[in-house]
Amino acid sequence: MRRSVGARLRRAYRDGAPLDLPGAVISADLLAALLLGGPGSAAGRVARLDLAGVRITGMLDLTGARIATPLRLRRCVFDETLLLEHAELVQMTLDGSVLPGIQAEGLRVSGDVGVRDAGIAGDIGMLAAHVAGSVELDRSTVGGTVFLQRADVGGHVRLRGAHVAHGVKLFGARIGGNLDLADARIGRARDNAAAVAGPSEVGGSIFARDVHADGELHLIGVQVGGSIAVQGGTLRCPDGYAVLLIEAQARLLTLRPGPDSAGQISLRDARFGRIIDDPVGWPRDCRIELDGLGYERLTRRSDDVATWTASQRLDWMARFGTGFAPGPYDQLAAALRRDGREQDARQVLVVRERLRHRAMGRLGALWGAIQDATIGFGYRPGRALLWLLMVVAASTAWFAWSGPLRAVKAGEAPTWDPLLYSLDVLVPLVSFGHDQAWDPVGADKAVTVAVMVAG
Fold first, then answer.
1. CA nearest to 399, candidates 358, 447, 361
2. With left for phi above 0 and alpha for psi between -120 and 50, is residue 402 left, alpha or beta?
3. What angle do CA 69, 31, 118 make, to 5 degrees?
4. Contact predicate 255/227, CB 8 Å
5. Which tens digit of pLDDT belongs to each residue from 194-212?
6. 11: part of which helix (H) or strand (E)?
7. How far is CA 140 from CA 144, 163, 275, in A?
8. pLDDT tens-digit profile of 358-408?
9. How does 69-98 read in b/e, with b if 16+ C-beta sit within 10 Å?
């Protein structure tokens, strides 16, 4: 039986034909001999190992090998870890296979790497790998960690619907396409992180929609050519940071963690063109760091996101922010002005000044309360005009009742006019010749000084 299976395998390999042998057992040595022995192609055909449904006994060791034919081992069961360190392959497909682990540090592949719908009991180690195409791990279950540190992937890295027990490591990687973690379930590694993708370069976008992560989503310093979408799902790291986007850069950030998410989210010193978030539906157990964050506009593109007012966003910053800093308020006001919301921008700046003065202590808070009540810290000039009119009216009424005052030089004073006298005292830059012509004493002098101070 073994000879017939081996013969069929050799013939299918030479012909480049797929071979499905459910339940058959093939030794790793036989596969290695075929792959390392050269193409051996039949006339007019390209050799290819396209095998499905078999059990592979022994360790398939292709360390340092140069294999010029595609390697397809679908729905196969490996007894031992697959070794591919520093190997050079055209293409590799392990869809639906079950393996103890994959060791592929320094692997070079001129096409795609596909490990979809697979079960890996241990780690997938592809440190410093070079893959010209994409790395596909969709719907696979990994009992250990996916290591892609310093990897260079020309296409996409996809883990859609994958289950990874102990984290995904992409530190220092360069990805030409997208990093797609949609619907993935990722547990934390020893360093408390579920996924580490920064500092890395992603030419496309990062999709983390409906991700369930038990640990940090670590994106510090990531450089993204497209967008970053952290939306839905559950991000849980109650004892630390759920999402770290410190110094990250992207054209668009969608930040809408699911309602059961918990932990701190840091956008400190990050830079984005636009941000889509949901302050009205923000999860109650998530705090947010905004100090140093820069963006051009706050937009709303999804119909399922409730519209928000400036008051609601300010309330969100007060409830979920990690402390007062003036920068986030300046940034918010600038973004609102770019959207033509001048009145909302002034409201933001007034709140910034209130918080700033409260942080100065009791005297600062008192002086801030006076400025707030009188002139709105200079952002509400209408209120200042109202106060001036009230002072003028009160001053005019007083001097109309108590006047006229005693003239400084008898016979030279203008006709007594309580309104013009009040305006002269109140506005020092304008002179109607009345403040110098009359000499207040007693209560009149006290009122005059009070009007001057008010001015």
1. 447
2. alpha
3. 80
4. no
5. 988 878 999 999 999 999 9
6. helix 2-15
7. 12, 6, 32
8. 777 777 767 666 666 666 656 666 666 777 777 778 777 887 888 777 777
9. bbbbbbbbbbbebbbbbbbbbbbbbbbbbb
